[in-house]
Write a structure and sequence with these properties.
Its EC number is 1.11.1.-. It contains twelve helices and 23 strands. By secondary structure, the protein is α+β, with helices and mostly antiparallel strands. Bound molecules: protoporphyrin IX containing FE.
Length: 501
Amino acid sequence: AAVFNWPDPLIDNIDDQLYRPFFSPVSTFALGCGQRDNTSIAAEWLRIAYHDMATHDIDSGTGGLDASIAYELDRPQNIGVGMRGTLEDFLVSPIEHVGMADVLAMGAISAVIGCGGPAIPFRAGRIDATEAGPETVPEPQQDLASHIESFRRQGFSATEMISLVACGHSLGGVRKADFPLIVTEDEPTDVKTFASTVGFDNTVVKEYLDGSTQNVLVMGSNVTTRSDLRIFSSDNNATMQNLASPDSFNQICGDLIERMINTVPSTVTLTEPIEPLDFKVTDTFLFPQGGSLAFLATLRIIDSALNRTVTLFWKERTGKFCPDAGCSSGSFQVDSEAASLLATLKGVNTFKFYRFNAAIDLATSISHFWFEVNNNDGSTPLIVDNQGKNFVIDQDVLLFDPRRTSATIGGLIMVAAVKNPFSTAAVSAFTTIKGTTAVPVIGSVTTNFELDSSHPPADGYTFYTSPTSFLHLNRLSDTLHATVDGEAYSVWVPTVVGTGV
Ligand code: HEM
């Protein structure tokens, strides 16, 4: 599994989206296989992942799951309200380090488990395309040879094609409004579902084999568009027979959908699978306050029956202030939070958040920190120190100041603290901003900060603030950058609400 070397905004954020419910639509909207548009949210999420991936060309190594679908929505092959609807579901989910392509891939995993299917490992690191890919999504009126060639180009054999289509068509169905030549006028429903059950299971296979299927791509009156029939029967039903066992259906579909979401351009390298982290440092803030440096930090631990105490330790950046064992502070608050469905499928039900608020000596500052976790059961306390490397604070010159930052009706007024600049520092924020319903693609903007007239210099720091023209309301994440006395600094600001943290 992927190792979390703090700070790592990519793994940090993905872990939150996958394993903390209510952090992101990704882990919540598709729960319970909830219905929408006469089919399910999950069906819409799974279909878009396939269509986005279907631009892959194994021969040239181009295309794949890269969110190019956002530029391809006007094509007939991508017709359907679910496509735009899904991108709208996810408008709030990307950040600077996590693109829409990773979000679509997480969505596919959530769709499958939300409807009772298998848990699929998630690897991160997809890169969003900046333009449309080729028009290579298979369509129902094409012949079998074209479909075999489409799937070959996407990286799947003819047998895998049969399985992947059966897996995908376990969910949802075909809309009359979008496909009037397939779901014809005489059909009583607006959506003709592929199977008689809503969940992610092999009903679509069983009903095909026993002849009771209502799948309109198998038995619809329009023979030209019976693509599922041509595909399913292309090896005399051998693959469909194999999928008739629920276990092999789950196994094969889990593996193939995993390969589907991991189909990316050859220039992209994905991380190892991201499992729930045993120990995760989160919500760290360092800023000058009342004669010292306030240091807020949280250690998230997978909950167990143990009655733990956790202590934060740190060492000075310059000079001597702390005892040899390090300065220390106990947690002031412990919160519990239920884990997401995906986490529970991996045996993790609850997280505990040990929160710290330490006052750091201003003159000697802080260079690194670590934690001691005591299970209070006689065992040796565990040291949590970023795999032996410590949690290193790389600089204290440019800091994000959450307490001087304020939320107004117009959005966030961000404040950065710069340590003792000899000359005026050039401070700016690189802000990732939400796409819109019309253009569901994330963007970014760089904003120069101004000397903060409402916060005079204090504790050896000078404050800079975002101008009122700052695009606050659409912000997804920020990195602050500054040039201070000729040196460049940056600080990653995780998505937080403005005041007081
Ligand atoms: C030859 C290949 C395929 C063809 C011709 C095809 C065709 C179609 C058509 C015409 C629809 C109806 C869409 C709508 O009305 O909104 C549909 C729905 C769907 N397809 Fe496919 N499909 C293919 C492969 C796949 C694959 C490989 C997957 C995923 C692994 C997939 C997943 C879905 C899902 C989940 C839906 C339901 C969407 C909803 O209810 O909103 N399809 N497909």
